[in-house]
Amino acid sequence: MDLYVIRRRGAWANEQELEAAGAKSARVGQEMADRLRWIRTYAVTEPDGRIGSVCIYEASDPEAIREHGRRVGAPSEDFQVVRGTVVKNPDPQAGAETV
Fold this sequence. Notes:
The protein has helices spanning 15-31, 62-72; strands at 2-12, 36-45, 51-59, 79-81. The protein is of the alpha+beta class and 99 residues long. It has a single domain (2-81), classed as ORF SCO4226, nickel-binding ferredoxin-like monomer (Alpha-Beta Plaits). The chain has a 4-stranded antiparallel β-sheet. Strand 2 and strand 3 form a beta hairpin. Helix 1 packs across helix 2 (62-72). 18% of the residues are buried.
């Protein structure tokens, strides 16, 4: 399986829509476990105030990424295969001070 970065721009209007999409994504991901695995998602505020995301997935092929997106109802055409990792530090914890 390859590692993919998926950019979903302005897909959700609010936190409730994002949470519902996350729950559905997890369910569909379990159904597709032989072809796809959700690693993590970073939710971002778009310039227009909507919520977008940057998601990390492992997938057997690009079609698994597209199928998952179709089944979840989340745009999944803006993705790339990860070439490698440059900085290897854990994500900071929310609310924790960073230096």
